[in-house]
Amino acid sequence: MKNVYKDLTGINFGRWIVLGFAGRNSSCQILWRCKCICGSIKLVTGHNLKAGESKSCGCARNDKTKRLNGGGSKAPYWKGGRLLDKDGYIILKKPEHPNARKSGYVFEHVYVMSQIIGRPLYKGETVHHKNGVRSDNEPLNLDLRLNNHGSGQSIKDLIPYWKKMLALYETLTNE
């Protein structure tokens, strides 16, 4: 079998940096000696590196678990209990807050609104992001609504934006 392979030495894959060629495993897959950012050194197949199936020695998963369980202050990506969820909302570690979930996290927009109105949100109350940006939790961007308000912006909220856009396009057509 020919030793033809692309040299991956020095390339980063997730938290790995490839240190050099390490031979082949029993299945004839090429092995690379890799160092994780945490300092761990392991052998990883080229396929797993290139396919993104191996991104670290496992420390990334451990950091995430620590962060989500509230004990991750030493984890490299710890943000002090402030995380971005999969839907684009910011969640805060506030287990003492009345609107917190069983995990101890509360949506930041709910937390901010409860601070504005001076009480926790009641069942059926929701917080609407006027500009549609789920991570923009500035008080002026938040609106307390009753029942589920659905996605998108209200017409009233969009009027200033469209006035601005119309003025912009009017200047472009007058040139």
Can you walk through the features of this model?
By secondary structure, this protein is an alpha+beta fold. The chain has a domain at 1-78. 25% of the residues lie in helices and 25% in strands. The strands form 3 sheets. It has a 4-stranded antiparallel sheet with strand order 1-2-3-4. The chain has a 3-stranded antiparallel sheet with strand order 5-6-7. The longest helix has 19 residues, at 155-173. The protein is elongated, with a radius of gyration of 25 Å. Residues 65-71 have low confidence and may be disordered.
Compute the average pLDDT: 81
Whole-Å distance between the termini? 69 Å
Principal-axes shape call:
elongated
Poorly predicted spans: 65-71
Helix content: 25-40%
Total number of strands: 9
Order of helices and strands: EEEEHHEEEHEEH
Give the spatial strand order of the biggest sheet: 1-2-3-4
Instruction: Supply the helix-strand structural class.
Output: alpha+beta
Q: Largest beta sheet, briefly?
A: 4 strands, antiparallel
Number of helices: 4
Strand content: 15-25%
Rg, rounded, reads 25 Å
Short synopsis of the structure:
With 175 residues, the protein is an alpha+beta fold. Helices cover 25% and strands 25% of the residues.
What topology emerges from the helices and strands here?
Layout: E1 12-13, E2 16-24, E3 30-36, E4 41-45, H1 46-50, H2 59-68, E5 82-84, E6 90-93, E7 105-107, H3 108-117, E8 125-129, E9 142-146, H4 155-173
Antiparallel strand pairs: 1-2, 2-3, 3-4, 5-6, 6-7, 8-9
Top keywords for this entry?
175 residues, 25% strand, alpha+beta, elongated, 3-stranded antiparallel β-sheet, 4-stranded antiparallel β-sheet, 4 helices
